[in-house]
Specification:
heterodimer; A: 423 residues; alpha/beta; TIM Barrel; 2 domains; eight-stranded parallel sheet; three-stranded mixed sheet; 16 helices; globular; B: 336 residues; alpha+beta; BirA Bifunctional Protein, domain 2; eight-stranded mixed sheet; 11 strands
């Protein structure tokens, strides 16, 4: 089966996965013969922001003094603390939804390469239901134990970490309890590289609960806990649940209970791109969350009603503008794959960005090194771009590095702190 | 501590030879003490009108309020059932039959691997569980003090040779029988730990190491009351006058032995139970039978569970709780 991603920059991702950092540049044999300029901007508000280097670069002078030589883009230090983990890049491997692509050997390859690259990996709450845990139910090649084992195999010391999602509606799977007492995860726990992420909504379908297609036998078994609806043929039944965190007090107490029950694990919280995303993030941080993740409405890999894919949820740029992350760890995902979009998210307050579809496409194109190549591109591109704005680390980025001349009607206006030709 | 090892090179990873363990004079002394403690508990509770119930071992749902431990699933004719992590749900339901009940009940919790070295966690253990309709926290803590004092007085009086065999100095126990159990709030316990240089999350359960530290600094057992919401299961009742504070308690043994017992007043109002379930990350749909009873009305109550192996360890002065079990199961250790 070939993985495809209609509407996504599939060809460009595949090119990077094939060619590595060579794909960052125009075709080498065109050098000297072709003229290059801007292409028509497509995509969302985040894509339409421009990166705005200044003429005066105080931090570059500081870097020159520090180094005693001219600072280069290669001097940009990308190592970043992500939700309590140390990562080689401001990048993590996102959980991917219940797509068939996520349920193949490819996800194990992606896990292995994320580990080798020293970036954190998030395991989706759906994995145990679809691929099993990997203990008495046996190793499937795609189970949680398989993924953790693959990830740990080439993981450098002191880098990376595994984050395991669970949502309230599926709490009876007891995934966190299982992982916390599992020998496979013990080395991660003992080295401070295990986190649990409370998922309070669905990235691909904000406002809805989890949706899974199940067969008749499964539907009969779980019908007293989940809503079951027949879609088309009698063999295809839709299993739905409801997002489980209704109030600020419930979110606060759920986080406290996680900290109480799993004192050696870090706590992440994944929010939906909702209109109250800023308030929800504040509650999460105040209750002790080590990271808050926001999927823009552009994000998500899971199965969802078409209307939700096109029309529901705040765009990522608006989520980032609304949430005041300050020194706290805000993580962003949604259509991430290359350096400029990642830099824009970082400049708007994110600590790191998550790769979902891009990671899957990259290992689909090149199972052995596709994700490593994609990450190498992203790292080099980030170094080029960060140095271009006169800075030498992701934490130095801010909204001053962005520019917009296209305010979008009908959505919250960009704050005045984002540079604008409209003053 | 005065006890010595029963078997194995150390208490961290005992290599328990079942035959050697069962035939050891020390194991026999420990188990005799445990048997007499249980006899004392039955006498005391029956005298006060408590009915002994035989609780279920399996059910569609069990106590979720068990810090980080995994429940054991079993296949019940195609339905996922659980081995009981505690009897709490059935204890509350039993009050529909009798106002005062108790049971001596096995509990199974797949505890985190790190707890194998705490000296006081077992994956399988037993509790003396009590539930009392209409009781307040003060009434059940008074009951616990009387109960523990009776149990301990009985074993001291009736089994002096077993204590001699174990080399246990019973002066600590005679002080316990004659004294009064103290009480401090969770907030005070946090402050005490901080003063001792031990970091402690003010929103959470007192960590195992912290409990041991407080215990080591006390010569008599004491209660910690008023735990914060977020540290316990949905059934511990939230104060109506101090939101965020639970009407619950732990009993901490003296001399470093740590927690012996947990309990509290219970949530019994249907809407409160459902809300608290959500705050503790639980799906109410799982608790169908229990919530249906609550919707129709279950009595207000208070109750507790005393860890039998932990109490035995304390009374007998043992290094580790597993020594108080004939067939111990330490977290993560494959054993009969």
């Amino acid at each position: 089966m070939t993985t495809t991603a209609p509407g996504f920059a599939e060809a460009a991702v595949r090119e990077r996965a094939r060619s590595g950092t060579a794909a960052l540049f125009p075709r080498l044999d065109d050098y000297g013969s072709a003229l290059y300029g801007a292409t028509a901007p497509a995509g969302d508000d985040l894509d339409r922001l421009r990166i705005a280097p200044p003429n005066f670069t105080d931090l570059r002078l500081e870097k020159l003094i520090d180094l005693g030589r001219e600072p280069l883009y290669s001097d940009v230090e990308l190592a970043t603390e992500i939700g309590g983990f140390r990562s080689s890049l401001p990048v993590y491997l996102s959980a991917v939804g219940s797509t068939r692509a996520a349920d193949t050997e490819l996800i194990r390859q992606a896990s292995r390469q994320a580990g080798a690259a020293g970036i954190p990996m998030v395991i989706g709450e759906n994995v145990i239901g679809m691929s099993g845990y990997g203990r008495l139910d046996g190793l499937t090649g795609r189970s949680i134990v398989d993924r953790i084992t693959a990830y740990r195999g080439e993981l450098p010391d002191c880098l990376g970490g595994v984050t395991v999602q669970q949502n309230t509606e599926d709490a009876d799977a007891e995934l966190w309890n299982l992982v916390y007492s599992d020998p496979t995860a013990l080395p991660l726990l003992e080295s401070g590289r295990l986190a649990f992420e409370l998922k309070i909504g669905q990235g691909a379908k904000p406002g809805l609960g989890g949706m899974t297609l199940v067969d008749r036998q499964t539907a009969d078994r779980v019908g007293d806990v989940y809503h079951i609806e027949q879609l088309g043929s009698a063999d295809q039944l839709l299993r739905s649940s409801t997002p489980g965190t209704f109030t600020a007090e419930i979110l606060r107490q759920q986080i406290r209970l996680m900290r109480n029950n799993f004192p050696r694990a870090l706590v992440w919280v994944k929010l939906i791109p909702g209109r109250d995303v800023a308030a929800a993030a504040e509650v999460a941080w105040a209750a002790g969350a080590d990271a808050v993740t926001v999927d823009g409405a552009e994000g998500g890999t899971g199965w969802a009603p078409l209307a939700f894919l096109e029309h529901v949820g705040l765009p990522l740029a608006d989520c980032l503008r609304l949430v005041d992350s300050r020194q706290r760890c805000l993580l962003a995902s949604g259509r991430m794959w290359e350096g400029s979009r990642a830099l824009k998210a970082l400049a708007l307050g994110a600590r790191a960005v998550g790769l979902g579809r891009a990671a899957l496409l990259s290992v689909d194109e090149n199972p052995e090194t596709g994700l490593r190549n994609l990450l190498a591109c992203l790292a080099t591109e980030l170094r080029l771009l960060i140095s271009a704005v006169g800075k030498y680390g992701p934490s130095q980025l801010s909204v001053e590095d962005l520019w917009t001349n296209q305010p979008t009607e009908g959505v919250p206006a960009p704050p005045a702190t984002v540079g604008s030709s409209h003053g | 501590m005065t006890a010595t090892m029963l078997t194995g090179p150390d208490t961290q990873s005992p290599s328990i030879e079942t035959r050697q363990h069962l035939q050891s004079p020390r194991t026999r002394s420990v188990l005799r003490i445990q048997q007499r403690l249980l006899a004392g508990a039955r006498e005391y509770l029956v005298e006060r009108g408590f009915a002994e119930m035989l609780p279920p071992m399996i059910g569609p749902v069990t106590d979720p309020g068990t810090r980080g431990s995994k429940q054991v699933d079993i296949d019940f004719y195609g339905h996922r059932y659980k081995l009981m992590t505690s009897a709490i749900l059935y204890k509350q339901a039993s009050l529909l039959a009798f106002d005062k009940i108790f049971c001596i009940v096995p509990c199974v919790r797949l505890e985190p691997l790190e707890t194998a070295s705490t000296s006081r966690h077992l994956a399988e253990f037993h509790q003396i569980d009590v539930e009392w309709a209409g009781a307040s926290r003060d009434e059940v803590t008074a009951l616990i003090q009387g109960l523990v004092q009776r149990m301990v007085a009985k074993v001291i009086a009736e089994l002096p040779t077993e204590f001699d065999q174990l080399g246990r100095d019973v002066s600590v126990l005679t002080d316990l029988v004659a004294g009064t159990f103290g009480q401090r709030s969770h907030a005070q316990a946090v402050a005490d730990l901080v003063a001792l240089g031990h970091p402690q999350n003010p929103d959470g359960e007192i960590e195992w190491s912290g409990e041991a530290l407080l215990s080591a600094h006390s010569r008599t057992p004491f209660f910690i009351v008023d735990y914060p919401k977020g540290s316990r299961g949905f059934y511990d009742r939230e104060s109506t006058t101090s939101p965020g504070v639970l009407r619950n308690f732990d009993l901490i043994a003296s001399d470093g032995y740590g927690e012996l017992c947990s309990g509290g007043e219970r949530e019994h109002d249907y809407a409160r139970i459902v809300t608290r379930m959500r705050e503790t990350g639980e799906n109410p749909a799982k608790y169908g039978w229990y919530l249906e009873l609550a919707r129709q009305g279950i009595p207000a109550s208070a109750g507790f569970g005393i860890g039998v192996e932990r109490l035995t360890r304390f009374v007998a002065g043992l290094d580790a709780a597993w020594q108080a079990s004939a067939f111990p199961k330490l977290p993560g250790v494959v054993s009969p």
